[in-house]
Amino acid sequence: MIDYRLIRSDRRTLSISIDREGALVVRAPKRVNKRDIEAFIQQKERWILEKQAAAKQRIAARPKLADGAAVPFWGSTLIIAFGDVKKAVRKDGILWLPKTGEAARHARKWRMEQAGTLLTPRVEYWAAQTGLQPVKIAFGNAQTRWGSMNTQTRSLRLNAALIHCPQDIVDYVVVHELVHIIHPNHSPAFHAAVRRILPDADGRRAALKGYTGLIRLWE
Questions:
Q1: Mean of pLDDT over the chain
Q2: Whole-angstrom Cα distance, residue 40 to residue 24?
Q3: What are the helix and strand counts (H, E) for the chain?
Q4: Is residue 184's pLDDT more than 90?
Q5: How far is the C-alpha of 34 from the C-alpha of 143, rounded, in Å?
Q6: Which pTM does this prediction carry?
Q7: Where along the chain do its domains lie?
Q8: CATH top-level class for 102-216?
Q9: pLDDT tens digits for 30-54?
Q10: Containing H/E element for 202?
Q11: Which of 195, 144, 142 is nearest to 172 (CA)?
């Protein structure tokens, strides 16, 4: 039997999903017994194994913090190297990390600094183009979302991992969140507004899925 995490609720049907780390998650009604749950899993075994294999491939493809490893950066690539530096620094296509201390911590701190430098101008540009001005811009390391907009306070929060994406993808996320100022949900009106600003928004949204694994980079 495949290992799984069970979540019971007042739902009416059984469902299964594979999380970002390849683990099987089963959602079941409170009344369904374990035997029926595991029979359901067995029926879906082929699908589960295929999805878990794909998840393992995505995880294996994540850039590592190893000497000589490549990491995407703003539509280009940086090579990881360790040297006698006090903090992470980018120079001539190389991301230098200190030899001492936790490499991931140094890398995340550098990424937050880069997010402020690179992402803020894109927000300012699109705010000027659209008239949708956030009151506050913040950056974080969320593990599931590229961005969010608090429509009550107009506070925009962007995932610092966006620096690993090309600028056209970054611009899509920025515009997407800014439009939430006037359309809080993902209604047809919301998507129409995004397309008026970015006519190729649908293509950019589809391309964004290819960068999902980078959200959890350097955890």
A1: 93
A2: 13
A3: 6, 10
A4: yes
A5: 31
A6: 0.75
A7: 5-60, 102-216
A8: alpha beta
A9: 999 999 999 999 999 999 999 989 8
A10: helix 201-208
A11: 195
